[in-house]
Amino acid sequence: MTAARGEVFRLRMRGEQDVFVARQRGREVAALAGLEHQDQIRVATALSELSRELTTLPGEVTITISLGAEPTPALVLTAEWAGAGGRPEDLEGVRAAARLTDACEVSHEGAGGSVRLTKRLPPGSAVDPDQAERIRAAVRESRPADALGTLRSQNQDLLEALESLQARQEDLLRVNAELEETNRGVLALHAELSEELEETNRGVVALYAELDDASTRLREASEAKTRFWANVSHELRTPLNSVLGISRLLLDPDGGRLDPEQRHQVELIRDAGAMLLSLVNELLDVAKAESGQIGATIVPTDLGAVFDELRATLRPVADAGVELVVERPEIDVVWTDPVLLGRILRNLVSNGLKFTERGEVRVRAGLDPEDGEVVVRVSDTGIGIPAEHQQRVFEEFYQVRGHLQAASGGTGLGLPYSRRLAAILGGSLEMDSRPGRGTELTLRLPGRPAGEAAADVVPLGRVLVVDDDPAVRALLRRIVEGLEGEVTEAASGPEAQQALGAAVPDLVLLDLDIPAPTGSEVLAGMRADPALAAVPVVVVTAAQLGDARRRDLGRTAAVVDKAQLSGPVLVAAVGAARDLVGRAP
């Protein structure tokens, strides 16, 4: 409903008396429209100030009060004038009226204009035509008050406003007092918390200092322990070897006659010495692992050969009623250190044989299809390990007490040492065990190294074999010809250079220790020659290469230990060598 259609009161200003009428009608309409007491006074005062100011201007002034619905229910107070000069919005009364209402709009049309004041009604207030008619009827029935009545009403409003103001002032003083008290409490609490925080910080700093000091002492103690183990192990090995040597001499049938009792005593000495030497060797190995003296030499390793050696070495020591089952591995070649891998597997299988009274110890290996890791599992049907001990058995010297442990002896170093070796190989060692059902140890090793060819590299094509040992050349010839390769042999550096100059081969198998120029010099010459730089080279050597030397060679050639020579190992090495020079099979 527009303001014009909802008009409830209109007054044409003719004198000062009409100012009182406008105030009275404004308050009545505000009350009828549903405004609270304070808002009624604001509306009445706004109309009073507006009409008072406008009556001082020359010209005709009309005051209207209407109900408006857009955008929200509101009481609309409008003052229109004609023929007035100046700008009414600059008058103090108009500015005061604007402050008492929610909105004020001033417009000019020729010599006249209007002021429109809006006071919002409570939500849900009725502003329909019926409500407007009810308010108009009530206003018509109301009689205008005289000056004294108006003054009395204004004084009453003023007294109520003063009382309300005083009550609010008292509330404000009370709230301020409470706030001040709260602030004092907050300040006291802040001071207390700050002191506690400062004390805590001092304690934390002191604790960090203690932890740093304890960490330093622990590291120094660990280093001292490692040095002690290494030194004691070295010092004990010489006399122990002497004891064992003398024992063997005494037990030698050609060394002299011993009666049965003497032989028995010497055998006890020999066995005790052997056990002590084994312990010393384990201590020395652990000390080397902890001090970082053990490095991994990662080469293509024939996993089947490692398993064969494991089977041949440990099957004879299995007790009656316990079978050692070493399955054929699902993969032929792994990239790892064969020596360290053999140590790990011997430790794991030996533990399984010690703590299995009947049943089997089984070794198997394969590839994890998800991440391509090599997974070697050693399982047994032994006594098992309770859950609360399964992590502690990887601590040095920790052993789970039991009748088999007492009978088999041991140092408690095998599993910790094996886990360290697994970490050196870039892998991990985990345990799953159930008492009475057995134990499974899982060794995970990295799969194919970056750059290793995944597919077969056969046929090999034309292969130049360079080695001064005829037996090695014969072995390599058999392996290469089994892979459909055509072999040319060279027994020295000059012969190798001559063969390379005569025809560029598809592959070179090169020993380092050959008559000058050495294998290293031949390799350097190939990489410097544009015609030979892209020829794959596999270094086949029995030399104990240092880590730095092996890394240098690994930049331009694959490296294989002669002790690991087999068809699968050579295939893997050729794939790596081809990747190094960027040549496809």
Automatic annotation (TrEMBL):
List UniProt keywords, sorted A-Z: Coiled coil, Kinase, Phosphoprotein, Transferase, Two-component regulatory system
Q: Which Pfam families match?
A: HATPase_c (PF02518), HisKA (PF00512), Response_reg (PF00072)
Q: What are the EC numbers?
A: 2.7.13.3
Highest taxon in the source lineage: Bacteria
Q: Which Gene3D superfamilies match?
A: 1.10.287.130, 3.40.50.2300, Histidine kinase-like ATPase, C-terminal domain
Task: List, for all copies, the residue spans of the domain called Histidine kinase.
Answer: 231-449
Q: Which Gene Ontology molecular function entries are recorded, alphabetically? A: histidine phosphotransfer kinase activity; phosphorelay sensor kinase activity
Q: Which residues, renumbered to this chain, carry the PTM 4-aspartylphosphate? A: D511
InterPro entries (UniProt xref)? CheY-like_superfamily, HATPase_C_sf, HATPase_dom, His_kinase_dom, HisK_dim/P_dom, HisK_dim/P_sf, Sig_transdc_His_kin-like_C, Sig_transdc_resp-reg_receiver
Chief location category: membrane
One GO cellular component this record assigns the protein to is: plasma membrane
List where this protein forms a coiled coil: 148-224
Top EC class of this enzyme: transferase
Q: What subcellular locations does the record give? A: Cell membrane
Response regulatory domain span: 462-578
Q: Which reaction does it catalyse?
A: ATP + protein L-histidine = ADP + protein N-phospho-L-histidine
What is this protein identified as?
Answer: histidine kinase
Originating organism: Pseudonocardia halophobica
